[in-house]
Design a protein that fits this description.
This protein is about 25% helix and about 30% strand. With about 210 residues, the chain is of the alpha/beta class. It has one domain: Class I glutamine amidotransferase (GATase) domain (Rossmann fold). The protein binds glutamine.
């Protein structure tokens, strides 16, 4: 493909500025997405950290959650971090209904407990470049179950903290808060592949990119 992929950042809650910077550095054009219309024509999407309770309240009654589900079904590349991981989980343990879903995992909100509300650690990363990665966890969800189709890229104390299924990646931590560009670069690579496949299909008259 030519040009920089257009990658949306869901901007209804949570921190977006750091993702904007990281995406730009990784070679994408970031676009802030506030509603359903903002999802049109994207090559990829970041669902940032923040609070899923707020996301549910702000986006729940609009068509945005349904549009996000549809985008995930279409295969739009998505990187969900922290609250974004919770949004992507098919199963939220202890009551909350699925938000967007599309990743076959079970998560527990704030699962690392009060004592470890925030912490930084070094992770061994599998399949996303070489070498360890510094990772910052903030009131992070714990991944309690990983489906058979889901690939685990990193674990911490026996729990998966980075998981993917095709072009969909969920992280318990915040890659936008550290200088390591690998996860944003991964998303940009997926977005380029997605844009290329969409362009080819559009040429044949089967538009997939709504
Ligand atoms: N604790 C938040 C939630 O449950 C997630 C925290 C974060 O995104 N940093 O939604």
């Amino acid at each position: 493909m030519c040009g920089r992929p257009r990658i949306g950042i869901l901007a209804v809650q949570g921190a977006v500025a750091e993702h904007e910077r990281a995406l730009r550095a990784a070679g994408a054009d970031p676009i802030l997405v506030r509603d359903e219309a903002g999802l049109v024509g994207l090559d990829g999407l970041v669902i940032p950290g923040g609070e899923t309770t707020t996301l549910r309240r702000v986006a729940g009654d609009s068509g945005l959650i349904d549009a996000l589900r549809e985008a995930r079904r279409r295969g739009l590349p998505i990187l969900g971090t922290c609250a974004g991981l919770i949004a992507l989980a098919d199963d939220i343990i202890d009551g909350d209904a699925t938000l967007v879903g599309g990743l076959d995992i079970s998560v527990r909100r704030n699962g690392y407990g009060r004592q470890l509300a925030s912490f930084e650690t070094s992770l061994e990363i599998d399949g996303i470049g070489a070498g360890p990665m510094e990772a910052i966890f903030i009131r992070a969800p714990i991944i309690e179950r990983v489906g058979v189709e889901v690939r685990v890229h990193a674990t911490y104390q026996g729990h998966a903290v980075a998981v993917s299924d095709g072009f969909c990646m969920g992280l318990s931590f915040h890659p936008e808060l550290t200088p390591d560009p690998r996860f944003h670069q991964w998303l940009v690579g997926c977005a380029q592949a997605y844009a290329k496949a969409s362009a080819a299909q559009n040429k044949e008259g089967f538009g997939v990119r709504a």
